[in-house]
Design goal:
The protein is α/β, with parallel strands linked by helices. 33% of the residues lie in helices and 25% in strands. Its EC number is 2.5.1.61.
């Protein structure tokens, strides 16, 4: 490619790290690029909970507009922030190899490791946990119904400072975000029991549909296993509800030539849960593998998840 690709990115530390990773990987293929910094509505409003400002596309729509107006050539996103239906005229160009998909708790003491599992020193403590994710909130309340959930917004550094300055017991973060910019504190541990958001830990590159040469260039960065796994997770999410601001989780992984898929949906208060689990050998026909996320979602809907979905919709999500 002879021209210099303009990479659109939000200006947060994590977003710039991700865009720089893409820039470096393009450079490894002798493709020149430059970063273009664009502030999103999601970065400007740090008070309103994500689910009240229409979280679908809140961190992507400004970059989408810049892409469609040709101010930039490609945009780089944390894939879990990207709506399952891309904006018209925009196409997926690459999915980079996934980092950790785990959620972690950054805490202020009161936890201990017992027989390999993190537990509260005082299980009856009325803890206060911070997160703006209704997925994390529902899973946490399912496990700890007597705890209080507080809203937490802002970029990684802002959120870490809010935790330090507050009376909260702890706050939930995506491991990948903190680890990428080397900000994961020692006082944190993985929530192995918490299923992540669809595509958590993955980085997505998008471009204009009308430019196949750009898509081809970015395709050099694509990790096929990650791309398949996040597709199944996003299919699951889309078939159940369609949006990422829902208490729906999914994780697909490939190991020992086996595809494993786990998905769930919770009621908003965490009191109800429906979960599914599937395993398929990777030598299964590709068209069958590709339908795993949809199949898992329909299985849940036929197993009572439709009632939870209706309750969520009636609540305005």
């Amino acid at each position: 490619m002879s021209r210099i690709l303009k990479i659109g990115t939000r200006d947060s530390e994590l977003a710039v790290w991700q865009a720089t990773l893409v820039q470096n990987q393009l450079a490894a293929h002798n493709i020149a690029s430059e970063l273009v910094y664009i502030k999103s509505d999601g970065d400007i409003d740090l008070v309103t909970p994500l689910y009240e400002i229409g979280v679908q596309g809140v961190f992507t729509k400004t970059l989408d507009a810049a892409l469609l107006s040709k101010r930039i050539d490609i945009a780089v996103h944390s894939m879990k922030d990207v709506p399952t239906q891309l904006a018209k005229g925009i196409t997926q160009a690459a999915v980079l190899k996934r980092a950790s998909s785990k959620d972690i708790l950054v805490h202020k003491g009161g936890w201990e490791l017992v027989n390999g599992e993190w537990t509260m020193t005082n299980p009856e403590q009325a803890a206060i946990i911070a997160t703006s994710s209704i997925r994390r909130k529902a899973q946490w309340l399912n496990r700890y119904p007597h705890h209080t959930i507080e809203n937490l917004r802002g970029n990684v550094n802002t959120r870490l400072q809010k935790v330090a300055d507050s009376n909260w017991t702890g706050a939930i973060f995506a491991a990948a975000g903190l680890e990428r910019i080397e900000k994961r504190p020692d006082n944190s541990f993985e929530l192995d029991w918490m299923l992540p958001a669809a595509a958590q830990g993955a980085i997505m590159v998008v471009c204009r549909e009308e430019e196949p040469d750009t898509k081809e260039a970015c395709g050099l960065l694509n990790d096929a296993d990650t791309a398949l796994c996040v597709k199944l997770e996003r299919d699951f999410l889309r078939t159940l509800m369609g949006g990422c601001s829902t208490p729906i989780s999914a994780l697909a992984a490939i190991s020992n030539n086996t595809l494993t898929f786990t998905g769930n949906i919770y009621s908003l208060d965490g009191s109800q849960k429906k979960e599914t689990h599937m395993e398929l050998p990777m030598d299964t026909r590709h068209d069958v593998l590709a339908q795993t996320g949809n199949k898992a979602a329909w299985e849940l809907l036929q197993n009572g998840a439709d009632k939870i979905v209706e309750e969520i919709r009636n609540a305005g999500y």
